[in-house]
Fold these 3 entries.
Entry 1:
Amino acid sequence: MRIAITREVSPSLADCQLTHVARTPIDVMRADAQHRNYQRVLASLGCTVLTLPAEPALPDAVFVEDVAIVLDEVAVMTRPGAESRRAEGASVAELLGRYRPLRAIEAPGTVDGGDVLRIGRTLYVGRSGRSNADGIAQLQDAVAAFGYRVQPVAIRGCLHLKSAVTAVRDDTVLLQPRWADAASFPGFRVIEVDPDEEHGANVLRIGEVAVMPACFPRTTQRLRDAGIEVVTVDVSELQKAEGATTCCSLVFEANRA
Ligand code: CIR
């Protein structure tokens, strides 16, 4: 059984953290409707969607990806780089603990799950404003015993590694070359986002399907031309909060350990 942990949109979403995106008005009701559709799409792709209640005092709590890294054998609770996000993990840990043994990143380490791209037994981890060297070293220690390798990756000009690059197949990445270098992914087939679709690299892979924001038709076409099946979702209000498709779920197989 494939689980997708999600969380309802906070009524305070408009007070979210923003780093590389200018603040514009967010229609929270619309964000909520888009998020429900996102959940429906995950369910249609075979996920059992578990939904945590909204956290009114935590504007960014819908972005559950950032608070945990779920592997087949273990889950690592992160310590998010933004202080305002540190309380988001507790309820996710309570739920995740039913499925995986838990480890945790401790101060002064910081890691955001959005910086961690797992491909096979390698965790590519963005060195970002949110994930520091101490946190990346702690993550390495936490997962080494389970046979995972941690590979730090330089990024520039974006929030997280997965803003810049995601995997659409085990051998294929979708990359924004302004924000990360193809050379960081030797041996991979690299598909670049369309130059006019700056934020187009963040796609959520569910099995062999790529879940892609609806506003990137040219990058979607590039994926389809490469033989990748794509489903699109309108997440425009969540994009105003500097999120996209990977950030709103933690997807994993229930019984892998
Ligand atoms: C933040 O800045 O933390 C949120 N406003 C957006 C987080 C998006 N997370 C993700 O893409 N993994």
Entry 2:
Amino acid sequence: MKVAILPGDGIGPEIIDEAVKVLKALNLPLEMATAPVGGAAYAASGHPLPDATLALAREADAVLFGAVGDWKYDTLPRHLRPEQAILGLRKHLGLFANLRPAICYPQLTHASSLKPELVAGLDILIVRELTGDIYFGQPRGRRTAPDGAFAGAEEAFDTMRYSRPEIERIARVAFEAARRRHGGRGGKVTSVDKANVLETFQFWKDVVTEVHRDYPDVELEHMYVDNAAMQLVKAPKKFDVIVTGNMFGDILSDEAAMLTGSIGMLPSASLNERGQGLYEPSHGSAPDIAGQGIANPLATILSAAMMLRYSLQRPDAAARIEAAVQRVLADGLRTPDIHSDGTRRVGTAEMGDAVVRAL
Ligand code: NAI
Ligand code: MG
């Protein structure tokens, strides 16, 4: 199994080191090769996604990605900024499904912005479509408004589009994920739309309903996005798997992340049609704490677990990592971002070492 390791910049290299430590400790037949990406690649070669890095990612079974976006590159033209690397990888690898679990570990319920009883035991999965929707729909641009109440005024416009195959494949990812979470069959998918207002999302709703015929064991419910935003903070445990488009998913996944109270704990996966995937923490490169050895490596370690589950067919090894993380939290070890009274404050490397010991 070939894994491309792309540490990135900011805290990326620090958190990736710990995930690699954990992967090595599993003694699996993994071939790991590292390449620079983002700010680190720009500094070395003048481009955030060098050809050699892209080639390594393409030929790997999976990519483990740290983070990119160090502020020192903020003044570069857009096409050279570190964030272009992740956008380029998504595009070149055809990564259309973004999976973001929001899990509230029993030891961390106090960190949530919601009451502990609302989030204790929370374990939901957001499946966000990543390559379509209003973010990429053409035409788009600025012009002089040709008609309407403001005809003649300067205006801007984007286009919301989804095709049947795009909706079908993301719906399948969601139904399969629901089954996988429930031992191979069952579970519930909530498809989030705005079918009452938008034709794109009436079509989305129709297509998801058709795909559901192949998954009769999985329950399907439809929910308008405004209601979903409300239910996520009112009764988040009512959800199991949420599937939605690019824009609604962008917003709802960040909302769900905050329910768990700790961005440093949240992994993510982005998959293509061949099951190849890019795995990364949900957070960015945290330039404010880079180089201090205090970043929480658990989101990256848990991303490595998702990689074993979704791209490398080793759910057993994934479960071992997840159990080790739970164990370390139960032992009271905390990086500063999740620290509270009565727990032991540790740094990035100490946290990684503890996970290895727990394994
Ligand atoms: P961020 O996620 O990097 O940081 C937000 C806050 O959370 C900061 O206070 C940071 O210190 C803290 N934080 C993040 N990860 C942490 C961890 N593992 N342990 C402890 N604390 C952690 O988001 P921000 O500040 O908006 O973005 C910083 C840069 O990262 C920007 O250039 C942004 O574009 C980029 N970014 C990159 C992403 C990626 O690589 N996929 C995703 C999101 C942002
Ligand atoms: Mg976002």
Entry 3:
Amino acid sequence: MSIGIIGAGAIGQLLFAQLNTGTSNAHKIHLISRSPQSFIQPMSFTGLDNNTQHGSVEILGQDAAEIAQLDLLIVCVKAYQVVETITPVIDRLKPNCQIMLLHNGMGPHRNVAELLQHYPDMGLSLATTSQGALKNAPWNVSHTGNGKTLIGHYCGQPLAEHFKSFLLEQIPNATWHANITTALWQKLVINCAINPLTAFYQCKNGQLAEACYQTEILTIIEECITVAKLDGIDLTNVDMVTMVDEVIHFTANNTSSMLQDINHQRPTEIAYISGYVVARAQYHGIQTPANLTCLQRIQALEH
Ligand code: PAF
């Protein structure tokens, strides 16, 4: 079976390393970049134990013939790149290829689900991870924090059992979720509470455990829970505060993806994180001032 990971960012490279660890040759794992041609690339990956593995890897380009052989395509690009990444390759995928999205924030799954209506033998799964990963250089990634990875079926044909068990075995702390939309909302709340604050205050995740940030974090969480409820998703305050605290603790040394984006002057996923909550709140006719402040602060930094 052939698995492609498209998007060679920090999380894409982390996943590539994890899916390649200790495996038999049952699955061939490809890393796919967004350039047209394939190339051989020296890479290094440092695990949580500080052991570094070096190697040369063939990175497939968008035109590579291997794309037509993939059984599972894991899309690890930023939320705002999901549709533009899938659109040019979808016609070359096997008719029954499975697609899995793994990114922060919410929104693009609705567009991909619409696209898949024309491909009835394909299926869409969604995943979200709280693992920390840092790109020290373009092909040099460190695993900077443990965290949970949640995966579940969203629409179309279900993911085959052997893929499910492979992913759950290879990715540390990965679990399958029957209701992935609730899991995505939980992760959204975590990202709303951590990402904009770390980017705005220029701090590592662990610093958010300090007392001075607690009022802001609790207000963001409460607003998210209210909007989720209006969207038909029941989240409890106790659970969400615990989950946010746990991620702050387990990824204390991590530079959040949004802080990395701001520091490298890249666009952020704020429109799909705080922006998604603000948009859903507006749809339901309510205000979410703390999340709106986060959205506006990060948009100002982006500009
Ligand atoms: O976006 C991130 O950085 C991650 O989702 C998380 C969980 C906040 C850890 O840094």
